[in-house]
Amino acid sequence: MIHYGIIGCGHIANKHVAAIQAVKGARLAAVCDTDPIRLEPFMGGDVVEYTDVEEMLAHPDLDVVNICTPSGTHKDLTVQAAHAGKHVVVEKPMALTLEDADQMIEACRENGVQLCVVHPNRFRPAMRRLKERVESGAFGTFSHANATLRWNRNQAYYDQALWRGTRRMDGGVLMNQAIHNLDLLLWLMGEVEEVASYQATRLRQIETEDTSVSILKFRNGALGVIEAAVTVYPNNLEESLSLFGERGTAVIGGTTAHRIRTWRFADLSEEYGNRIIQQVDEDPWGVPGHQCLIENMTAAVRSGKKPSVTGEDGKRALSLVIACQQAAEFGRPVRIKELLAESGERHSPTRTRGMEK
Ligand SMILES: NC(=O)c1ccc[n+]([C@@H]2O[C@H](COP(=O)([O-])OP(=O)(O)OC[C@H]3O[C@@H](n4cnc5c(N)ncnc54)[C@H](O)[C@@H]3O)[C@@H](O)[C@H]2O)c1
């Protein structure tokens, strides 16, 4: 049995609880929240409740810690858990800076523990099908790809917790809401080389941007567009991902990128394509993504093999967000390679100086 403990028992923790309960060989052993009210649902059961992280990490049976706290706290908690010898599942975004992401990856590596970042949308039926098509080469040469997020997060959403909409803890529409779609874009299209971007705070009273448009050059030569906003009236309209190649077009849409809208490939009849669309429509969610991740993490802890969404994957999505933010701030395109090199230097100045000699 692999024993899990959750830190941060707010909204998303519910999905972690359900996922752990649904996975054979996994057990929820402990929960921790600095706010004791958040622990009330667990009282009277066989889960041990803590208000102090250090105390929970001393729990002798705990194997994995799931970090479900505000995003700006993820780095310190991950490093702390890794030093206590616990494997880590950390909610997205894994961190708000590349230096923090590097420290998390390093702490887990040094302590010989696994690190999994929660990007559960990869497990949706439509996304699995799309990944298969990409890997089989069915698109031929890609011309371009679009990631679109047209959602509504109203002012009440930002006012419900102090951390929401702040630079230090939330990070904005790309960092908090669109990062799942960016992870999918990278997973399917490969590395991004360069980014240009505009960002604005148009309608919400928050520190971070609520509206963002960016254009991309992928390493494979294709172009890309990201549109992300939480200002769409009156509620969530669309999250979609569109890939365009010389022999294929696929659009995954719906409010949260879960239904196939277009599925046209030179090697498939239109009728067969429509059947795939229908099959996905019959079960657009499949097994919940959090459950797939916990199942995968449980196996990874047992086997020592890496989980299917690693710290490096989380850092890749984070670097795209930061490249967009910097491109907007500096008013010029940003190359991801240079961004990573600069953050590597800041993270490890002595090592970089040593290498220059
Ligand atoms: N994967 C997804 O689809 C998804 C969806 C929503 C949120 N999230 C992510 O999950 C994280 C939490 O979001 P939420 O909406 O659940 O937030 P929330 O505000 O509802 O809950 C956060 C909880 O963490 C607790 N907390 C804060 N600091 C703590 C600490 N140091 N130790 C212990 N407890 C602490 C708070 O008291 C609160 O109960 C964020 O990083 C967010 O981006 C992911």
Attribute tags:
single chain, 357 residues, alpha/beta, Rossmann fold, Dihydrodipicolinate Reductase, domain 2, 2 domains, eight-stranded mixed β-sheet, six-stranded parallel β-sheet, 12 helices, 14 strands, globular, binds nicotinamide-adenine-dinucleotide, Oxidoreductase, GFO_IDH_MocA-like_dom
Query: Nearest-angstrom radius of gyration?
Result: 21 Å
- CATH class of the largest domain, please? Alpha Beta
Major beta sheet, specifics? 8 strands, mixed
Bound small molecules, deduplicated? nicotinamide-adenine-dinucleotide
Order of helices and strands: EHEEHEHEHEHEHHEEEEEEHHHEHH
Helix content: 25-40%
User: How many independent structural domains?
Assistant: 2
- What's the β-strand tally? 14
Strand order of the largest sheet: 13-12-11-7-10-9-8-14
Mean pLDDT: 96
CATH-defined architecture of the largest domain: 2-Layer Sandwich
Domain Gfo/Idh/MocA-like oxidoreductase N-terminal: 2-118
InterPro entries: Gfo/Idh/MocA-like_OxRdtase_N (IPR000683), Gfo/Idh/MocA_Oxidoreductase (IPR052515), GFO_IDH_MocA-like_dom (IPR055170), NAD(P)-bd_dom_sf (IPR036291)
Domain GFO/IDH/MocA-like oxidoreductase: 127-250
Protein name: Oxidoreductase
